[in-house]
Amino acid sequence: MTARGSIAALMTCMAAAGAASPAVADSVPVGVPLDAVKTTLGVDTPRVATAVPVPVVGAPEAPRMHTGDLLPGPLLPVVPIRTELGRTLVTSPVPNLLGEPSTDGEGSLEAPATRMVTRTPGAALGAPLTMPNGSNFGIPDLTAPKLGLTAPELIGTPAALLGLR
Questions:
Q1: 30 contact partners, CB below 8 Å, separation of at least 6
Q2: Three-state secondary structure along the chain?
Q3: Burial level of 74, CB count in 10 A (0-12/13-18/19+)?
Q4: How far apart are CA 94 and CA 124, in angstroms?
């Protein structure tokens, strides 16, 4: 095989791998199997359908230089992570709601899909030296070192709906 043929084979493999890669999902649907409980105990079991969130990590924020500081801030960058809390539905039979078999119903709890965004905490560190001091022949002055943490963030609006049929 020539060098040109091996490069062509490599490019073909890379194109096939790129075309075959699946799209990234925000959540993976999951059905909770409770049929064995119904068979074993002989009672009606709730039906549960939900989705497992798949966190997607974003690019860390770049440290920025601030006037008068020797070190960039934040020194430990903040990393955004987003995910989608998938739709969750729990339904369960509710027998003899008012004491009569004719009032049998089904209770449900539904949580619609919600997008969540979080940011990890970051760390800021201040050097124990100041910028070079012109009145001190360019020698930096000593200062108390600084250490700080940025608070983590969680942004989203989860909701739930309770129903009875």
A1: 49, 50, 51, 52
A2: CCHHHHHHHHHHHHHHHHHHCCCCCCEEEEEECCHHHHHHHCCCCCEEEEEEECCEECCCCCCECCCCCCCCECCECCCEEEEEECCEEEEEEECCCCCCHHHCEEEEEEECCEEEEEECCCEEEECCEEEEEHHHCCEEEECCCEEEECCCEEECCCCCEEEEC
A3: buried
A4: 55
Residue 99: left (phi > 0), alpha (psi -120 to 50), or beta?
left
In the chain (165 residues long), the average pLDDT of successive 10-residue segments reads 58 50 65 83 85 90 82 86 89 75 78 91 87 88 88 89 74
Q: In one letter, which amino acid is 146?
A: K
Model pTM above 0.70: no
Q: Residue 74 is encoded by which pair of tokens?
A: 């934040």
